[in-house]
Amino acid sequence: MIEAIRNAFKVRDLRKKILFTLFILLVYRFGAHIPVPGVDIGAIQKLFSSKEAGILGFIDLFTGGALSRFAIFALGIMPYITSSIIMQLLTVVIPKLEEWQKEGEVGQRKVTQVTRYLTLVLAIVEASGYTLLFQSQLGTPFSVLDKYLIVITLTAGTALIMWLGELITQRGIGNGMSLLIFASIISRMPQAVYDTFRVINPAVAIAFFLLLGAIMVAIIVMEKGQRRIPVQYAKRVVGRKMYSGGSTYIPLKINSAGVIPIIFASSVLLFPATIGKFSGRFTSVVNALSAGSVYRMIFEAILIVFFAYFYTAIVFNPIEISDNIKKYGGFVPGVRPGRPTAIHLDKVLNRITLPGALFLASIAILPDVLGARLGIPFFAQNFGGTSLLIVVGVALETMMQLESQLLQRHYEGFLK
Question: Which of 262, 332, 333, 350 has its Cα between 20 and 30 A from that of 83?
């Protein structure tokens, strides 16, 4: 590992990309500590430290503590993530968006532009909601000018985060948006580790952190796990050239949906709870969907399994893959080309998605159970299934990019 890092810094272009990425992450974390004007930060932090924080404490995790400081980056990258998810869902039902996606780079630019505009709309709505919420919770009314200033500042902060994420993707290493969420979650973990050792017996804390380490290893195994469908290609003649046949495979991941089912399930559960928090009503709903609640765990597990199948069906089209295999003269051994191949792929995918979905559900619920048993709610917030999956997934993705860059330059990489 140390040798691979040393090799990465030996390459001038790669060193520039790594340092540029670290610089952007530093700017992002700096913006998470600059409060918006006209707000009593002490009162807001007191609200988050109380038991009434509830849902807000969970949301604060994805902003790296920026929401509890009501900083200019208080909305974090979540408006962009929500916008991207909405666009992915709309692509399935709106033919024009699907047409744009198939147009290549030009169409992708159009989709990205619409995603940006939708992000700004969501940011304005969320900024207005948080402004009204904190005004009602703190009992200190803001003037009309303060409200406009806060909403504009938070929206501009979201636009700046979008730009920073795109800069990392274009000029740095890894996916920019994923790395920003990664930085937000990682920034909270040292304090959470300290608080855990402070609240419970150190021996018990060490045992649970070892258990978390085992969970992270299991996540890596599941992320790498796949079912390979063999595909055989016959010899074919194109013009005056003859292309020899060969064999390859279609890798079907056990967890094709990644962390998306957990994010979807969390969003669905957060929506009624957040509305109840904003309005000051539906107290029973807010309490039932709070972290550590048995009802929340049950609903979350069901939703994760549902969204795992739902999102897998969106990202993987067996009919299209079957047509492409048939078009290039390929076939799955023992299965006729065309529709039977599509049915076979769909059956295999449904079978392997179930253990992946159940694994995601167990990973999401286990930290909540541990937090409830230990009596430390921040344990589930900082070491929950969503946090662990994002941290491990982004780390693996970034490491793979560094690996490919090093191998291109004939250096030994991380994965030996």
Answer: 350
Q: What is the CA radius of gyration of the chain?
A: 24
Give the contacts of 164 (CB within 8 A, at least 6 positions apart): 24, 27, 28, 176, 180
Measured between alpha carbons, how far is residue 118 from residues 63, 126, 413 in Å? Answer: 19, 12, 39
> What is the tens place of the pLDDT at every residue in 88-97?
778 777 888 8
Lowest mean pLDDT among 122-131, 141-150, 286-295, 318-327: 286-295
Using alpha carbons, list the distances in angstroms from residue 8 to 11, 167, 401, 404.
6, 20, 11, 11
Is the separation of the CB atoms in 56 and 277 below 8 Å? Answer: yes
pLDDT of residue 382: 67
Q: 330-337: which pairs have CB atoms within 8 A and are 24 or more residues apart?
A: 330/231, 330/232, 330/233, 330/234, 331/231, 331/232, 331/234, 332/229, 332/230, 332/231, 332/232, 333/230, 333/232
Taking 60 as the threshold, does the pLDDT of residue 182 lie above it? yes
Long-range pairs for 51-59: beta carbons < 8 A, 24 or more residues apart: 52/137, 54/273, 54/277, 54/286, 54/290, 54/291, 55/270, 55/273, 55/274, 55/277, 55/286, 55/289, 55/290, 56/277, 57/291, 57/377, 57/378, 57/381, 58/266, 58/270, 58/291, 58/381, 59/270
Of 45-59, 84-98, 138-152, 254-268, the range with the lowest mean pLDDT is 45-59
Residue 47 CB coordination number (10 Å)? 16
Q: Which of 45, 58, 129, 126 is nearest to 290 (CA)?
A: 58
Q: Which residues pair with 31 in a beta bridge?
A: none
pLDDT confidence band for 237 (50 / 70 / 90): low
Q: Find out whether 375 and 196 touch, Cβ atoms under 8 Å.
A: no
Average pLDDT, integer, range 239-263? 73
